[in-house]
Write a structure and sequence with these properties.
Elements lengths: L5 E7 L4 E9 L5 E2 L2 E4 L4 H21 L5 E8 L8 H13 L4 E2 L8 H7 L18 H20 L8 E5 L3 H12 L3 E5 L3 H11 L2 E2 L12 E4 L18 E2 L10 H9 L3 E2 L2 H4 L2 H8 L6 H9 L1 H15 L3 H18 L1
Parallel strand pairs: 3-5, 3-6, 4-5, 7-8, 7-10, 8-9, 10-11, 11-12
Antiparallel strand pairs: 1-2, 2-5
Helix pairs in contact: 1-12, 2-3, 4-5, 4-9, 4-10, 4-11, 9-10, 11-12
The structure holds 1,4-dihydronicotinamide adenine dinucleotide (NAI) and 2-oxoglutaric acid.
Pfam family, one: ELFV_dehydrog_N
Family: Belongs to the Glu/Leu/Phe/Val dehydrogenases family.
Organism: Roseibium sediminicola
Amino acid sequence: MNGHEDVVFVQDTDTGLRAIIAVHDTTLGPALGGCRVWPYEKPADALTDALRLSRGMTYKNSLAGLDLGGGKAVIIADPRKDKTPALMEAFGRHVERLSGTYITAEDVGVSPDDMETVARHTDHVRGTSATGLGDPSPYTALGVFEGIKASAKHVFGSSDLDGKTVSVQGLGHVGYDVARQLHAAGARLIVSDIHAPAVLKAIETFGATAVDPGEAHMVDADIFVPCALGAGLNARTVPHIQAKIVAGAANNQLETPADGIALRKRGILYAPDYAINAGGVISIALATPEGGDNLVRQKTFAIGDTLTTIFERAAKEETTPEQVADTMAEERLAKAKAA
Ligand SMILES: NC(=O)C1=CN([C@@H]2O[C@H](COP(=O)(O)OP(=O)(O)OC[C@H]3O[C@@H](n4cnc5c(N)ncnc54)[C@H](O)[C@@H]3O)[C@@H](O)[C@H]2O)C=CC1
Ligand SMILES: O=C(O)CCC(=O)C(=O)O
């Protein structure tokens, strides 16, 4: 199981809650990672997602220099139909049982209001106004925007996005805010989402062009920004990507390491997902009930510099950016383990 420390299967018959809480590694501190609500077809798909997402959080928190380990929770439910306060309260009770080994927050299908509900039953929750700056998504979006600019500088020689065509896949809490910043910077937007109202809003507000979500990667664009679910970069999609850069918020974008190698072979720069999307967890880790917005913004802006370091090292070592990011994260973990 990729070296996980603990994987808990949760069932609550009163509310119908079925969830998995995966604690990957607590070397650097308690395992922090959001909770995803998604209607997985099979329980095995939920387990795979929980294991991959929690491992990603260990690497994300390590690379971002945070004193936090990696964990993640998934609830098997449709966020638009099945998510009730009772369900989220039951989840909160199960988080509490882990006594702080796992700290939860928002992820796909979960809003700040849901986390307020979870917080009725456990203190091991972040991303609420009582624990800090509230919704982490705007900080994630800020970091992704900085990461896109750093990627553009590396590939095009300038971070100016005016006139660039950008395909944004997924217009949720993070994707919509990234689209807003891209529009403000003068980029031409191509957008897609399985939720039609979000697409209509982006067309009306940003003058965006819409495409089918399954075609977002293959449109004629300079930059592809995946902000939906994971594994979108795979053997079926990579050969069709037109963009020179892939830089987005989605966790676990590469289905397998081979897909990152395929991107490099095609001359496409990939911004490692857990490096570019760390703004949210930075906001969660560094904010206090009194605030901390300035420090969080400063650290989130630094995501651009981290990516530049990663890109330059990858070019020098003739490897992929994600290989460099993994090495950097693992070096810090090894040092902490040895101490
Ligand atoms: N919210 C945060 O602060 C962070 C989010 N992330 C990652 O960023 C991604 C987006 O997260 P959020 O915006 O918070 O989630 P969200 O639930 O607010 O939005 C996800 C959006 O993707 C859409 N979507 C789902 N499947 C799709 C598909 N096949 N094609 C196109 N659109 C699709 C949904 O309809 C929804 O609008 C996720 O992968 C999440 O794990 C990563 C770091 C932090
Ligand atoms: O920013 C968040 O939503 C919490 C951290 C997390 O789960 C993530 O970065 O994927």
